[in-house]
Amino acid sequence: MQDANSGKPTAKKRKQRRDLRAMSHGQLLELLGDLGQPGFRAKQIEEWVWEKNVSSFDDMSNLPKSLRAHLSQACSLGGPREVGRQQSSDGSRKYLLRYEDGVSVECVGMPTRNKLAVCASTQAGCAMSCAFCATGAAGLTRSLTAGEIYEQVMHARDDFNARVTSVVLMGQGEPFMNYDATLGALRRLNSPEGAGIGARHLTVSTCGIIPMIKRFAGEPEQFTLAVSLHSAVQRTRDMLMPGVRKYSLLHLYEIMEEYVDKTGRRPTYEYALIKGVNDSEDEMGALCDFCRGNLAHVNLIRLNDVKDSPFQPSSDRRAEEFVRRLGAVGVDATIRNSRGSDIDAACGQLRQEMERLSR
Ligand code: SAH
């Protein structure tokens, strides 16, 4: 799928309207007050927007016609437009969604049995520059609002016409560099007035922004945390993940201990095995040391091909050896192999994790 951030911004007039999905409940009440409307209309409107995901004010059949007209002048409701899709023979669908200002992101819906897992993006592009990542190469375009993150999930829901059972924020972007919008989206996804998905089935994946992991540990909901580790050797991790160089592995280790103590929840560590880079005996030993003695699940990811990348995936045998060695020190590990999938491989890693989390 091509990057479509080159899309032209839409007409000026549309941009001046307020994005209704970016408004808080209080702001909506204020707007309705200005229009001389009673407060209960806010709840009605929110139901149309967040539960029913309508794309036009005309569909809000329990609102007076005049209010619908006022709202459509004052606010936009558009939601993203699908400008591309890829469909896999295994049933997953990857969408390219474009927002009003022309910026676009990817989102994946993956049905398994009676479940539907969705992988959504939190930013258009990413500033973290991980050496093996396709998104990292292009840099950050902009962060998404909570509404924009949420809408991706609703897009998949409506396209599959099925209830979404889990969401992973593992698409483009670093969620913890866009913390408030990420939390806003998670809360909306969790809320019975929104998508109504259980907090444990909502997962955030971070490259390890320590102050935000600390903050996340203090949130009242039981959201799930995944941390992209990719190496437990400082020098290797600095090379693979330059965006988090300033947070040492020792510091990450300490904060994750604190996270587990505080929440009692088991974090996942993502580890894409790269031949000759992070799959040596030393690397394996360091990973075992990092994970042992604390709650941890390791997700060994098959490295996806990225155009012009110097990195190669490790062999399957090497991955199995990692699982065995981690198991020997009491750490659960799983390998997910996305080979055979006909959908663009760039999102294979998302699929694997979604499969695990939606089980
Ligand atoms: N910024 C967040 C979430 C987005 S990426 C994070 O870093 O966790 C989701 C996962 O895919 C991360 O673990 C990321 O490191 C991994 N990933 C990125 N490019 C990959 C590739 N080419 N092959 C395998 N995994 C990759």
General description of the model:
S-adenosyl-L-methionine binds at residues 173-174, 205, 228-230, 304. It is an enzyme of class 2 (transferase). GO terms for molecular function: 4 iron, 4 sulfur cluster binding; metal ion binding; rRNA (adenine(2503)-C2-)-methyltransferase activity; rRNA binding; tRNA (adenine(37)-C2)-methyltransferase activity; tRNA binding. Specifically methylates position 2 of adenine 2503 in 23S rRNA and position 2 of adenine 37 in tRNAs. Its EC number is 2.1.1.192. This protein is an alpha/beta fold and 359 residues long. It folds into 2 domains: 18-76, DNA polymerase, domain 1; 81-336, Aldolase class I (TIM Barrel), CATH 3.20.20.70. The protein has helices at 12-16, 25-34, 40-51, 65-74, 134-138, 146-160, 179-190, 210-217, 234-240, 249-263, 281-291, 316-328, 348-357, and strands at 18-19, 75-76, 81-87, 93-98, 104-112, 115-119, 123-125, 140-143, 166-169, 202-206, 224-228, 268-273, 297-302, 332-336. The chain has a 10-stranded mixed β-sheet with strand order 3-4-5-6-9-10-11-12-13-14, with helices on both faces. Helix 6 (146-160) packs parallel to helix 7 (179-190) and helix 8 (210-217) runs parallel beside helix 10. It is elongated. The chain starts with 11 loop residues before the first helix and ends with a helix.
Summarize this entry quickly.
The protein contains 13 helices and 14 strands.
How many domain regions? 2
Could you give the order of strands across the largest sheet? 3-4-5-6-9-10-11-12-13-14
Shape: elongated
- Work out the strand percent: 15-25%
Number of helices: 13
**Class from secondary-structure proportions:** alpha/beta
